[in-house]
Structure of Vps41 beta-propeller domain-containing protein:
Amino acid sequence: MSNDMRKILLNDAASCVAVHPKFLCVGTHLGIIRILDHNGNHVSGKELPVHSVAVNQISIDANGDHIASCSDDGKVFVFGLYNTDNNQDIVIGRLVKTVAIDPNYYKSGSGRRVITGDDRLMIHEKTFLSRVRSTLLVNAGQEGGVKSICWSPTGELIAWSTLLGFRVYDVTSRVSLGFVKWSKPAEMNLKCHMCWRDSCTLIVGWADTVRVCNVNQKLPHLMNPTDATPYEVSLVYTLAMNFVVCGVGPLEDSLVVLGLINDGDRPQLHIIEPLARTEYTNMLPDRLSLRGYNQYTSSDYSLECLVEESRYVIVSPKDIVVAWPLDTDDRIEWLLQHQKFETALEVVTEAVDSKNKPLATHSKLTVGTAYIDYLLSIKNYQEAASLCCKIFGDNVRLWEKEVYKFARAHQLRAVRRYLPLTDNKLPKHIYEMVLYEYLKMEPQGFLDVVKEWPANLYNIPAVVNAVIEHLLTTDPMSKETILEALAILYSLDGKHEKALVMYLKLRNKGVFELIEKHKLYDVVPSMVMGLMDLDVQQTVNCLIAGKDTINHDTVVENLKPNSQYLYRYLDELDRKSTKLAQKYHGELVRLYADFNREKLLPLLRKSEHYPIQATIKICKERKFIKETVHLLEIIGNTKEALSLITKELGNIEQAVDLCISRDDLELWEDLISYSLSTQSFIIYLLKRIGTYIDPRILVERIESHMKIPGLKDALVKMLQDYSLQVSVQEGFKEILVLDYYNLHHRLVSMQQRGISIGGK
């Protein structure tokens, strides 16, 4: 205990102490009683220089209104702290070693009782007209005098001791409940320390022994009419220590014992857990460092306690220490002092979650903030940032305050991943601070953040201005990355054309995503060549996706310098929408001829929207025979077409099909002429020609000396086909003649019928 207490003990020494929940009283060797708060601060006007020699004992009533003191000067004083109505000044004339004030002294009608101990046990009480009546309770001279007195909390019982043992006395009945004798011969300089745990449990410490007694009321059916008191005492524990007991007190079901092994040693505070009548466990011995301990004996120490608060005051002449059981707050404080922040956070989290006993001085916020500050001090920025989410949650004010700590360390990048982005967003300038740090120190990270963060987190124009300004001084190596981020910012700000230009400048394929996302198809024609240079397929996809809105003439015109690009575009357009592509079929013919001949003939067959003469020229120049034949057939130049089929293609089947489709005898004769020099052609014609023209035309023109394999079979097939044709024609003729006669007969019959002529 420090503050004023330390000053007092510099010039004086403590002889005794009494404690109350409101304050504590210190008696000194100079005979002064000082009243202080529990922090050791002097209470103004509460210094009582009442005794001429050292104060032996001080006692306080239950309400903290009155104080009793005694001394070897033979005087006993009772002081009212708030009034003097019940003050007492008792002159004993003997060495008064102990005094105890009735806990109920503050109550009117209580008798205002005080008990003193010298060679006798005396009770002093106020009577009618405020006179003090002193009554001898016990003469203890033969037992070495009264050494200590202790009232029970109810004021019905007192415990007192001598050199031979201790007793419990029923003040109301004025009778002793029993005597417990010391197990060893008494020593004059040993103190007896007594404390009531409650109204029925007494703890006594003397020499090296601690005893615990129960004082219980007898059951009504067990009482005798001759019993002077309803109480009885039973000894519960007798615990032998390996040290001299200097003070005792209760701690829940355990005992607090102040002990000293040898004079001049450090005193020790023990937590004793009784197990059986004589057995116990010493759970927590703690050696104390008190000023001047090496000069003191066991009689120089004492222990006072506030049972309800589990607070203990350890008294020595030059030092007073206040102790209490370590609660969760104390444990957390110790962990913080020893930089065990992670454990402290676990403890406080567990305490908050359990909701058993609220913390008084610490919280998850205070411990977490201390931990974050520590991590920042050792430059463990990542862990500090990850901790922010757990500690600050959705508290915007706390987040904002903490972000500035990272800003001062230029480590906003560490906390970026943990900033709230949706609910409970921070002020915009916080997010802008993070972006500015990335811009200056990590351009790639700046780009990543711009891609990741929603645009409503920050002021886009402000960031754009900062980027443009930074580009003036930036490293050329990172310029491309920053320009890409600038393109994204332009897009987020609705300036899509600027963004497109930026993407094209960077040759970044993100331009296609931008076009598709914002349906910017109308601007594609003007920059189609740049887009094609970047990615042909994606550009074509964009053109087709916007086919209903873009100007295709502009696209075609701009793509003409690069036939490959134009081919890819028109080919896809024709595949997706032939109607839109019809006007460009002439151009597509040329492109197919250059890049994909396989698609040329299907186009020529399905379309009529191309210049046929120019197309024929293209096909002839490239010697595309099939395509040329098709075109010649279209314009009716069957002779040239037949010539190409037989001479260039050597396809007699196609030649026959052409002649069949035209049904032109002259064309058949041309085919026969082309075929006379080729045996396979003659055989094929003999097999097919019989059903279309007179086969004699072919047979008569075959040279007589020509050897033709398979001629016999071919002639048989030809004659069969011709015979079949003649038979079919005759059948048709018979049917025709029969139909003629039938119809003629019907006509004559109708004409021969009478006609009804009716009169008027």
